[in-house]
């Protein structure tokens, strides 16, 4: 879903409001954040040791018939295809997640991670399914 628009009444008139503007690439499990979009400064880089708050909201989508205020055959369409969740899976309230970027050199006894965001080893499955208790083959190291 690339864009979801709800039509709501404002002062007795229906007005469109974009509720979702996305990439239409499915669910992502990881995000690389490099800019502070709410910074009042010209420098939008993330600041070390500053708290940043994030929330992911699940939503329902139903567009059984698209609404179009310019087409008389579509005036009975779905005016609100987007419905935001108010609860988490267990029924509790949605809580923000706090992330604090910082230098990691002093952690893990000074261990430096020799990788960057998004890197992972290439794994070859020889046959069937496996658990961590069975043997695992990896491809030889290659430069990326």
The tally of strands reads: 8
Structural class comes to mainly beta
Average pLDDT value? Answer: 82
Shape: extended
Question: Rounded to an integer, what's the Rg over CA atoms?
Answer: 23 Å
Strand content: 15-25%
Terminus-to-terminus distance: 32 Å
Provide the spatial order of strands within the biggest beta sheet. 1-2
- What low-confidence regions span 5 or more consecutive residues with pLDDT below 50? none
Secondary-structure element string: EEEEEEEE
Helical run tally? 0
Biggest β-sheet description: 2 strands, antiparallel
Report the helical percentage.
under 10%
Summarize the structure in words.
The chain has 144 residues and is mostly beta strands. 0% of the residues lie in helices and 23% in strands. It is built from no helices and 8 strands. It has strands at residues 3-10, 13-21, 52-54, 59-61, 82-84, 97-99, 123-124, 137-138. The strands form 4 sheets. It has a two-stranded antiparallel ribbon. A hairpin with a 2-residue loop joins strand 1 (3-10) and strand 2 (13-21). It is extended. The mean pLDDT is 82.
SSE blueprint and pairings:
Layout: E1 3-10, E2 13-21, E3 52-54, E4 59-61, E5 82-84, E6 97-99, E7 123-124, E8 137-138
Antiparallel strand pairs: 1-2, 3-6, 4-5, 7-8
In short:
This protein has 144 residues and is mainly β. The protein has strands spanning 3-10, 13-21, 52-54, 59-61, 82-84, 97-99, 123-124, 137-138.
Comma- or semicolon-separated keywords:
single chain; mainly beta; two-stranded antiparallel ribbon; 0% helix
